[in-house]
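Task 17 of the worksheet. Students: predict the tertiary structure of the chain below and write it out as structure tokens. Keep your answer in the requested format; marks are given for formatting as well as content.
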Amino acid sequence: QVQLVESGGGLVQAGGSLRLSCAASGRTFSSNATGWFRQPPRKEREFVAAIRWGLSSSTDYADSVKGRFTISRDNANNTVYLQMNSLKPEDTAVYYCVAPSAPLFRPLPTYAAAYSIWGQGTQVTVSS
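Model answer:
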């Protein structure tokens, strides 16, 4: 089983930047993708971004974050990053790092049920 630990959340003013980290441990070879979801206050969880590495590497982003957020992976350290720039108050949410329990070989899914492994979440608050 893979364990995921997020870090890097905090309070930032609108227009600022944060970088979230997701460190994976355990059976990291069992998965080839990692994603980020978020849950704004009083709203449902929503897809943010995902990355797949290996022979069929790819990334995908929610329309709301395209051009502002960048997902990347440090292979040597089994860590995935989410660089968030030009933050807006509507980006305020608990951000979760997620991973599938088996490799993904189709277009990266954007629905939560596709990712069975979840971190504990990290709070991001953007003030106006």
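Marker's comment: The longest strand covers residues 18-26. The mean pLDDT is 94.
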